[in-house]
Fold:
Amino acid sequence: MGYAALFIAGIIVGAIIVLIINHYRQKEMKESFSALSRDALRTNSDEFIKLATQTLSAQTQVGSGQLEEKKKLIDQTLEGIKGELAKVEKSVTEFDGKREKSFGEISTRLKTTAEQTDKLQATTNQLQRVLANTRVRGQWGERIADDILRLIGFTENVEYTKQKTQETAATRPDFTFILPNKLKVNMDSKFPFDNYSNYCKAEAEAAPNKDEYKQKFLSDVRDKIKEITKHGYVNPEDNTVDYALMFVPNEQIFCFLHESDDSIINYALKEKVILCSPVTLFAILCVIRQAVEVFHLQKTTGDIFAQFKAFNKQWIEFKKCMDKMGEQIQKTYDEFDKLKTTRSNKLEIPLRQIDALSKKGGLLESPLVDEEPELESSVKIASEE
Structure:
């Protein structure tokens, strides 16, 4: 037991000694390795610095050349950029000048437009005030119709009449267009406008009663259609056609009628009234004028044909008389030819005989006839005898 404890204690002491020895050896080896590492590092550092210096010097020379080339390229690029910047600056300057000029012109035009808008507004207000009067409104419609008639070339009291009372009725249409065969078409140019004006104002102000004005306006138009029918503008006893015209002197109002109530046109046709705007009136009057011209042309052609038939009859009689006169002239010529040839030759035969006898007796100094008859004349006379 005692030996075992001594043996273990000896092992422990030996292990401690070995550890102490190894510790000192590792310290010495570490110091030796550190010294060797410092020497190797110092040597390698010197070589590395030398090699790096050489490499850096070579790279510096190469980099200097490349840097010079890049500098030249950058200088060229900068020169190009300067030129482009100069062009851009010039363009900007020109653009500024044009912009100022354009802005000046735009300002002038805007000012002119504003002035014209003010004038238009004043004219519109004046027109609204004028159209508020029924009598003046009718004159306005008549004026527009007169302009259309002058544009087409109609002449008053030739192709149409104004404010002429009908023969069989006491009414007086604004316009009456004269057609062939003594027919005519009557037109009324007075148009209801008040409720339409109220509707436009209400719509501009977004008033809730605008639909009410709209319905009143459509009702006014229907009442006007009935009024035209009652006034006898369609009157066969007065040689009118089966329809009368109702002039709407504004295209916008005419389109508004179509858009608001598409049945009002059919209602007017049922009442034998044709609604027409300035454009449609122009077309209707062009058709009327063409129809009148065609009628006059047909009538003139018929008159010419009748005169031609009369001329042909007289020409036939003239030819008959000419033929008779020709026959008489031919007979007269034949008789004259006989007198000139046969009768004259037969009369000259005794004269020549007398002439011959007188020459023998010395009674005549000059012959009674100039010469002997020709052989052909003698033969002819002989043949006739």
